[in-house]
Give the backbone structure.
Amino acid sequence: MRIGIDVGRATSTAVLVDAAGRVLAEAVVDSAPRTGLCVRRALAALGPLPGPVGAVAVVTDLARRPPRPRPVAVLRIAPGSHAALAPLADRPEAAHTALGGLTGVVAGGSAVTGGSLGPLDRDGAAAFAGRARDAGVRVFAVCAAGAPARPGPELDAAAVLAATVPGASLSLSYETGAAGLRERENATAVNAALGGWAEELVADCRAALRSARIAAPLCFARDDGGLVSAEYFARHPVIATAPASACAARGALARTGLDQAVVVDAGARSVRCLVVRDGEPERSTRLLPGPFGVRLALGAPEVVETDGAEAAEVPATVARLLERVPGAGVLYTGGRAEAFGAPVGPGEPPAGDRERGTGRNVTRADTRTTGRTGAGADARTDARTDARTDVRTGAGADADPALHGRYPRLTDAARYAARADCRIEVEQVISAAGRAELDQALAAVRDHALSRCVAAGAAPGSVRIESLAHAPVAYLPAGVHRVTVRAAGAPAPGATP
Amino acid sequence: MTAPAAGRPVRALTVDDLEDLAVGARVLAAGTEESAYHVALDWAAAELAAHGPVPLLPVDRLPGTGLCVAVTLAGASAALAEQLPTGEEPVRAVRAVERVAGRAAEAVVPLNAAAENALIALATAARCGLPLVDGDGCGRVLPLLEQTLFTLAGVAPAPLALATPSGDVVAVESARGRVEDLVRPLVLASGGWAVAAAYPMDGARLASCLVPGTVSRAVAAGAATGRARFAPWRPRSLCRGRIVAVEQSAGAYENHENGAAGPLTGLPGGPAGGTAAAVPHGTLGGVPDRVPLPSRPTSVLVEEDEGLRRRFRLEAHNEILLVLADGAPAASLPDQILMLSRTDRRVLDVERAVPGTAVEVVVIEAPAAWYTPEGRALARTGSGGTR
């Protein structure tokens, strides 16, 4: 059995599923400020568990309760650049305030091909670490030019920083971002800044599990919807700051059996629309602002967000998104779906019940009501502050024909998380002189991705490569390839520390 | 901002125009690294902010005997995204050409007006205090420094100067046709990119071979939205579908190490199928004079999801060179072929093509000179029989 818990701004939902993914129990409770308390309430509302739990997956957005970031010292390892391109020069003023402004550049790094740009300036790195220590900053983001091709300079600098500032917290860009120095540097800085938030969240949720006597691995949902272990999340929080809509969208598609749709995630404070194609939320080709407004390139799903006051724009947004997926249907998730055109009722019926023939999937109007249609999954709120609990457990929920419980739209994200796999994505730049060498290098990236997936919480026996894409880098000599690998695996069994 | 003058007014490009230029310049860019694009954009913005607006010279206002210098990014935008510019590269490259030419430059012209190249040319003009010519030497994008309409008009790229982000400056004086061979190892040694200043020529000569108006066209396109953005280029839609496979040619690996060119190299007069992988090295279609392209070929397969539901095969080698629809040629060089993301109608980088992506494949007609026999040959082989 596994549990998925979606902690929204106003409502938290929990779903217990069995090994076959059938819903055994579900709960909807009002959220509290602390995420751990939300988890505790949701688990309590699920009631007595019929057996041991294999994993608990938590879905929560950073924006639900914006944290106070840790001040970060950003060290760039690269030759000097134009002042307009200095470390974090492209971040907005709010980010400067949030993250602090301590930056440094030391010589070293690599070209995109992996060729050295010079030896690491170790003395410069140590001096920078000393400045940070003197300023009371012990959190470092390290980004070297060419790190996706050659991470060595970052590892060397990390050793220098750790020696200078014992106990320093280090984020290295080669573990965090993709090619493109500035965006990778931004992602590393944000990652470092969010470390405290992530550690607190993990501790809070673990305490909640312990109080519920659940000894199961804790996972968190990534922005694209896969899971990572709590330990991995604590080290790489930047990949898991806004997972709610992707999880809700994936859950909505799983509920209906569709593999492409425009999904409307309707919360009380905002409505988020996204395109899902082949079961995957469509990613942006652009650089998107991430936490603190900092520009990132982490391949997050493209989500069009409309705040509550502009809800009238939602139909136009949906129509625009539908142009990208001809023939696709519109799916609604979240508690305020009916306000945006969803049929009244618990949700779209499964694919077998759907009317067809118009080129789009049409759902029948369902006149059943749940009595909870005002509550939403993200800002799933009706602004009431009294703690409410609405639970359904046991064989009744299990008998649901679509295996999606009584409040399907409301629990899409939690239900998806309960069934999801751990997943990671690795991007590297490799250089190979010939075909055999290329094949070897690709195999090495594949192996690295599989190892990384295990590090992210997947059971070693279950990890697999989901996709591997590579292409020659344009305008570079033959043999320089950009490789992107996705690996996934079921959460490994274990116990909450 | 405009300045009164005899004849057509000279417009000046300001920081306010920059965003439009940047957006419009992406229309022709099939291989733009998103991160590099923002590097060039922020760099150009900083230069404009520091040095003020840049006058945009229409073709009829070019300095008749004044020296004009073409500027471009040489190498990979992916490299620019990793090793950032110092900002000194353009002025060093232009000054080096001036030293060889023995006189000062009076205007900067983009070698092509696509993505980073337009922005770097603008940054160069701002930094050097020179006007920017409203036009470019290509009218589209081709991979080699010598694949320009300047070459077709008999203007040599050399003397040419490369300025690298590491501070190196290399001036190249060479007989025509050798520049690419000489420059590429230098670019690699410099980390994968450099700023090149090339094709020094008088304004009158430039006026005779320039593709005019391409900078202002990009600015206008950038100010438009949706399909209107592409309207000035009158794009022809080939298909709407999704990428189902991305392949690399196994055989081309060895051939390209030894100098085979792109997929069209073996085609004597236009698209007739076949790739370099299938053609023995050294005797490609009777076109012995050729310049090897950087990088390696990639094939992108797109399945149409409407209409005839054909399967399109896009043969790319830095740029998309050929499109086959169910095996029949649908477009080829010198047409500019672009893959647009149906998510936001942005031009997709072939490097980033992944199965499942919804795309529209469009064709933009190149300037007429590219459709002459010499133009086609130059576009296909990089030499065009001119050496």
Observations:
- Residues 23 and 112 of chain A are 48 Å apart (CA to CA).
- The radius of gyration of chain A is 23 Å.
